[in-house]
Specification:
Blueprint (H helix, E strand, L loop, with lengths): L16 H9 L5 H5 L5 E4 L14 E11 L3 E3 L3 E9 L4 E7 L5 H4 L4 E7 L1 E3 L2 E5 L2 E4 L5 E4 L8 H13 L11 H7 L4 H9 L4 H29 L15 H7 L6 H15 L6 E6 L5 H14 L3 E5 L3 H14 L7 E4 L5 H13 L4 E4 L13 E7 L6 H8 L6 E6 L5 H7 L4 E5 L10 E5 L4 H13 L3 E5 L7 H14 L9 E4 L5 H12 L5 E4 L12 E6 L7 H8 L10 E5 L5 H12 L3 H12 L2 H5 L16 H17 L9 H12 L8
The site of magnesium ion has 3 residues, from α10.
């Protein structure tokens, strides 16, 4: 396959430079990428029905000949209509195409065709509107590819079919024979042909199983190798010789939870050892007290003469961390600085000097920290917040400013353990599975839109009491619709009791600067009600916000809902989350009711995984993982199998140096190349 990845798409017929650009939009840059671009789903055209036998109201494939057709006609609104009648020898069906006048030439001479679409009945007449059409000889299973503007599934299919023909007769299979036999997986060539052009849906399953297995295996091998890949040793200057944790805990205004104590100890142990430096993920639900853990570790690090850097994804979050760490470490004699893009040049210059001469102990900031001007005297600990926002590459840019510094990654996204091991395979894991005592639960209600007016009244009452609210409003699929839907929503609010509230709007199309402005106005209490289409900045802390209302709640994953809900319940006041959904489906109701029952992020994540399968975790891209092509449709079972298989392989051959593992090694490098990680090449 290697050479096909070097072959440009323009080598294929009917693909010129312009088309190639469209393919690139889909992430397809070579013929090799094309054969690895798997169908999204399939249409079964293998058993065409007669009109009278097909089920009305369902999508089906009907075989019939063209009996009557009139030339395309222009109607009002610039629409072109093409109408015809087809017959299967017994029954007749009317077909209408919109804006597809060019099909006329294809039908005008009559002949047999297959029509794939939704069959409807109007009185005693059968009808289809704009079905997909194919010549009768092409009965079979048809692949359906995710398309992009200007490039439809059929054109992709045409390119794929040329690409598949270029595959060598005997393909190099990255999966060793022994492994394939053990897990009952088909060979690569069978999989490649059948994932695109199968003879039956059973063959699709066989191919899919094998390809997802390979993809998940490669992913896990790659993650495990990244973890094993860190070969550097803790330098003498970066070792914790004396642990100051108890001294720090004694200064805290509260008693740390057992989970916090455990996490700090795990970090200190890593940092005291003579082996590889710490590489640890500290995962904890919203409010579990991650900041105090970070502060404790920084305290010991600084007392052992290291400098620490703490990077957050946005200016707001950086400022928040700066404030909370400053207050936790107040009076400790630790010099803390904040460095973001908006810090004045003169101030920046001063900070650069202090970092270089070692006068600043702890620097908190945004990407500004990875600027070339920043250098440290002895950077010993790098902390990044909200891991998924940073690519592997950005993290390593900061890391490279120290000599083998310790790394701590903090994440507030609870992920089930099985997945965490895999997603963060390159990190050790500490989990804060306990909230500080006395936390109040956010009461959560599921309502339908009939009750919306009452909910607005509820919001109004709290706003009149001086509290603040969020409304997350419908995401209308495409991001272009984003703005429109939010503005429309605000328009609608004008005829509700909420019209008198000071309302702010936050959406995906806004410039970061404008977003920050709205957020800080909300923080400062200058806005009562924040309407947002995008996910409100993870980690933003406005304790006076007490109600979160989420429209079309069914469109969010549970974990996402949990994240959103975490924006309230941060202060002294009782807080509420209102989920609005008109979906009546059992699974939806069941999913959303989980939110009403528990506030425990890990329980919610487990439930989400159980109800939706692992696809969403991979699909969301929020974990900085390479994008998966097929395994996102696979099951937990394959995930477990590949976890085992990866361990077996690495146990036998940690660096994948054996001849039979060469293919797997190549595929790991390829998968991870796209994340900006070059360690696996
Ligand atoms: P998160 O894990 O969401 O980052 P924070 O570190 O921001 O949580 O902590 C949330 C709040 O809880 C802060 O105000 C912090 O001071 C407080 N807190 C942290 N640990 C404890 C504890 N053990 N007992 C009481 N309050 C705590
Ligand atoms: Mg936090």
């Amino acid at each position: 396959m290697a050479s096909l990845f070097n072959m440009p798409l323009t080598k294929l017929k009917r693909i010129g430079d312009k088309k190639a650009v469209l393919f690139a939009k889909l992430g397809i840059n070579s013929v090799g990428d094309l054969v690895r671009y798997y169908p999204r789903t399939y249409e079964d055209w293998s058993h065409p029905y007669k009109i009278g036998e097909a089920l009305v109201g369902e999508v089906c494939c009907i075989g019939a000949y063209v009996e009557r057709i009139s030339p395309p006609a222009r109607v009002r609104g610039g629409l072109t209509l093409l109408k015809m009648t087809v017959c299967d020898g017994t029954d007749r069906m009317g077909i209408t195409f919109f804006n597809q006048g060019y099909l006329y030439d294809r039908f005008v001479n009559g002949g047999d065709f297959l029509f794939y679409g939704m069959l409807k009945k109007n009185g005693s007449f059968y009808e289809m509107t704009s079905p997909t059409v194919s010549e009768i000889q092409k009965a079979g299973i048809h692949p359906v590819y995710s398309q992009t503007a200007g490039l439809n599934s059929r054109q992709i299919e045409d390119a794929v079919s040329q690409a598949v023909k270029l595959l060598p007769e005997k393909m190099n299979d990255p999966l060793p024979d022994e492994l394939r036999n053990r897990y009952g997986l088909c060979p690569l060539d069978f999989a490649m042909h059948n994932i695109h052009f199968p003879k039956s849906l059973e063959d699709v399953e066989i191919a899919r199983k094998r390809l997802s297995f390979e993809e998940l295996l490669v992913l896990q091998l790659g993650m495990a190798r990244l973890k094993g890949g860190r070969k550097d040793m803790t330098t003498a200057g970066n070792r914790i010789v004396r642990d100051y944790t108890n001294e720090f805990f004694a200064m805290l205004p509260f008693e740390p939870t057992n989970a916090q104590k455990r996490a700090v100890k795990e970090c200190i142990d890593d940092m005291s050892s003579e082996g590889t430096p710490m590489n640890r993920l500290v995962q904890g639900d919203v409010g579990s007290g991650k900041t105090a853990v970070a502060a404790a570790v920084c305290y010991s690090a600084v007392k052992n003469n290291m400098q620490c850097a703490f990077m957050a994804p946005t200016e707001i979050l950086a400022a928040q961390h700066y404030n909370s760490l400053s207050s936790l470490l107040e009076g400790c004699g630790i010099n803390i600085r904040l460095l973001t893009g908006s810090v004045k040049a003169s101030e920046k210059k001063k900070i650069y000097e202090e970092l270089e001469n070692g006068n600043a102990d702890l620097i908190i900031g945004t990407h500004a920290l990875i600027s070339d001007s920043v250098s440290f005297k002895n950077l010993g600990l790098v902390i990044t917040d909200e891991q998924h926002r940073f690519g592997v590459g950005q993290r390593s840019a900061l890391i490279s400013k120290g000599k083998s510094p310790h790394i701590m990654v903090m994440s507030a996204t609870p992920i089930p353990r099985t997945l965490a091991l895999m997603i963060f395979g390159d990190l050790d894991l500490s989990v804060l599975d306990e909230l500080p005592p006395g936390r109040q639960k956010v009461d959560t209600y599921l309502i339908d839109s009939a009750k919306r007016a009452r909910a607005f009244g509820f919001l109004k009452k709290h706003i009149d009491d001086g509290q603040q609210c969020y409304i997350v409003c419908p995401l209308v699929g495409q991001s272009e619709m984003d703005l429109e839907s939010a503005e429309e929503y605000i328009e609608k609010l004008k005829i509700t009791p909420l019209r008198s509230c000071r309302t702010g709007l936050l959406h995906g199309k806004m410039k970061p600067k404008d977003k920050d402005k709205v957020m800080s106005d909300f923080s400062a209490g200058k806005i009562d009600l924040l309407v947002s289409t995008t996910v409100i900045e993870v980690g933003v802390d406005v304790p006076n916000a007490t109600i979160m209302m989420i429209e079309n709640a069914e469109r969010f994953g549970l974990s996402q809902l949990h994240q959103l809900r975490g924006r309230v319940g941060r202060g002294q006041q009782k807080s509420y989350c209102i989920l609005v959904s008109d979906h009546q489906g059992d699974t939806t109701r069941q999913r959303l009711s989980v939110m009403c029952k528990t506030n425990d992020g890990f329980k919610i994540a487990d439930e989400d995984l159980r109800l939706r399968g692992p696809g969403d975790f991979f699909g969301s891209r929020q974990h900085g993982l390479p994008e998966l092509r097929i395994a996102s449709m696979s099951s937990m079972e394959i995930l477990d199998l590949t976890q085992q298989a990866a361990m077996d392989i690495l146990h036998d051959d940690p660096q994948l140096e054996k001849k039979e593992h060469r293919g797997l090694r190549f595929e790991t490098g390829r998968l991870f190349a796209k994340t900006g990680s070059d360690q696996l090449q």
